[in-house]
Amino acid sequence: MLIKHNVKYATLGLAMLGAATSASASDADNFPSKPIQFLVAAGAGGGTDNFARVVRPMFEEAIGGARITVVNLPAASGALAHQRAATSEADGHTLDFASTTLVTSLAAGQNPVGLDQLTPVARMQSDVMALFVNPERFPDFDSFVKYAEENPGKVTVGGTHTASPDHVAFLSLRDASGLDINFIPYDSTGNATANVLGGNIDATTTSLSPLLSYIEAGQMMPILVFSDERLEDYPDVPTTVENDWDLTDGNDRAIFVHADTPAPIMKRLEDAFKDVYNSEEYQSYAERVNLDYREGWMGSDEYRQRLENNYELYSRLLQND
């Protein structure tokens, strides 16, 4: 069933997520009863793929030694992975590893799999978004704002493709700040960054972790972070909340299953991923790749509500773009 591109339908569909089919506790006790598939809604080597492959051996142990295979399905911004998970058996053996792109592409009408067909098991990562510049061009956010106000309609901000987390971060910033700035989509974070360094665009919106090497080299610098509080590693960089803008969404990475997965199996999955998240091994990984700036964990119910709110926001921003 296709999700219609309107907020009312999305809200109703999301409310159906709790309507999982009934199952006894013994079903969860016997889970898993066959091999498990991790469908990755992204290509090999990216953040979501690395996340799934790092988690796999930890999850295998937490769930009781099940055999797990990882399958990359990057086509159509991951829509193929979402479709396969939504049409699989509702038994918890097919898991969809996805980023914020799942809900941004849904809001843009690019993803035919609605939130009434997939339900989140949990969110485990929330990479902080930021506005990045060449520090030789703009030493701080105030200088960027001044330039944008003096040159309305001429400032360009790059990021990955339309309806990506980079794009909706830009739209959120433009909407909150009232700045007259424009977005240019690129096929990768690397290309957007290269165009900032080459002076072809003025800035880029993306998450922190992909640009750490550029930051360490002094080539790129965040001048605004989408966060409640200043980050320990960047104490001089202001936040969106300091500017009275309620913009703190990151690029999330989460796990989804068929919406009709029985509640006892859902709980078994959520508990297993929580054990993985709390493990010393996972926390060491998160710290190593700088995904510990803020709490990543969000359980199924809480994350479901966040997805609903984000869908409404992203739909409005993309429709008005």
TrEMBL record:
It holds the Pfam family TctC. Keywords: Signal. Residues 1-25 form the signal peptide. InterPro entries: BUG, Bug_dom1. The keyword Signal applies. Belongs to the UPF0065 (bug) family. This is Tripartite tricarboxylate transporter substrate binding protein. It comes from Halomonas citrativorans.
